[in-house]
Amino acid sequence: MYDFSADSADCVRSVEAGLSDVLTGARLSGPGPAAERLVEAMRHGSLEGGKRLRPLLVRQAAAIFSVSREAALPAGLAVEMIHCYSLIHDDLPAMDDDALRRGRPTVHKAFDEATAILAGDALLTQAFAILADPRCHPDPDVRVALVAELAAGSGAGGMVGGQMRDIEGEEGSFSETDIATMQAMKTGALIRAAVRMGAMLGGADPRALSALTAYAEAAGRAFQLADDILDVTATQEAMGKATGKDAGAGKQTLVSRLGLDEARKNLDAIVADAISALRTFGPRADGLRATARYFAARKR
Amino acid sequence: MYDFSADSADCVRSVEAGLSDVLTGARLSGPGPAAERLVEAMRHGSLEGGKRLRPLLVRQAAAIFSVSREAALPAGLAVEMIHCYSLIHDDLPAMDDDALRRGRPTVHKAFDEATAILAGDALLTQAFAILADPRCHPDPDVRVALVAELAAGSGAGGMVGGQMRDIEGEEGSFSETDIATMQAMKTGALIRAAVRMGAMLGGADPRALSALTAYAEAAGRAFQLADDILDVTATQEAMGKATGKDAGAGKQTLVSRLGLDEARKNLDAIVADAISALRTFGPRADGLRATARYFAARKR
To answer: Taking Cα atoms as reference points, which of B114, B36, B24 lies closest to residue A181?
Structure first.
């Protein structure tokens, strides 16, 4: 019987330990010694806190193919570093201008803007160094496929492109399709990459990869819709970051379009879609099933 | 007989065409369509202008192993994208606060700060997508080695780490060793990666790779020292960017330490070191020899 709380807590612990291990001056890739201030900022922006949902998705997808938690960790760390760098850059004054993240000062508040920009750049780069390392997977074909997948999920056609669309959307008027495209890129693309990378670690065949991609795309939509609902309903205290921001910024979400009740109904349907995409996998996909349900049920 | 001007001009043309080809919305990696504004900013920050010295080093190192110009191009584009992203981020108000680059408005001036941050992030990410693509090299072992090399050259232990040290140096007092370490990382690490990536494309054995690394490290020192000398001696008009900035910012360079005459003597010695590291390679290394000489002789 799959235990989501236990698996999730174990993932949080191993990601924390894994990031802490990589993010020391001596371990960071490059010919020279990383500046101490840079390493501190990278640690501030990635350690302590965070639900580590993307590494959890990597390990849960990998588990379908009997890949161990340990073997799925490096790829999970790479995805999490991308997530963390994106938060550091998103929090900058020129972007969302946030002072608080996970209940602590954001990197540019704890350090300064230049350091935050560089810490983000360094985390982004380190993510690819981790994937290229033989400890990530013994087969170079798999490692290079992971690099391609993470770049696709996080680049101009993925996360960063979605962030750009989000900023543009604050100025213009967005259709429901525009919002869906923006969210599929901004949040969905990295979730999609996490699931697919887990599948790749396990040597998934094209059919399994396609089913897991369908799962991931629905799970990503569920995650974002739940986030938009929480922005309206949750308190800042529970979230550890500012809430009510979307409405305050005049930002258009599916919740502002559909209303809260309709949005909640949609959320249930999307979670059902995600779970139905897993039907061929049996109990080894219980982890992914539980995470899709968690996305909809979470309170923060 | 090797013709530096012709090879360099050809490299500028093919890098320009190659970047323009990759940097269209349809070609950028990811599940969604890249936002037009993001693509425009990526193009503004990387097309038209730039001496393309790093792709030139990739092709020249690769030429030692009979790798064609065409086959060396994708790796060269990846290195150039890293260089261009670093300029976009360095120019930001929180960093060097430059309004002018290559005689044109910097990306945050032509667009805005948020767009410049994202365009830099997207170029960084796209560089790794290019290396992971089979068109870069047929052997996944080589592609994954290129990813590792570029990440090492550009991350916390390389270029970004050097940038952090440079910022710290504006506040404290730097020894000559501190300056050398900072410059070896900030400028040297990416030049080193470019040369080594060219060697890797050609399947260089460890001995050849080691000799080329020695060349690259000396060439990188020559490049930076020449840059510091130009900052003192050249006009803004010739450089297409602000000069005299180092002294204005109280920034410590080897020129401010050694004086101009001593710095010029050092430069000649370093170029001689670079060229002597190539002694086993014969005429196929004439490209790299010419570039080392060019680094010292360039007027902008």
So the answer is: B36
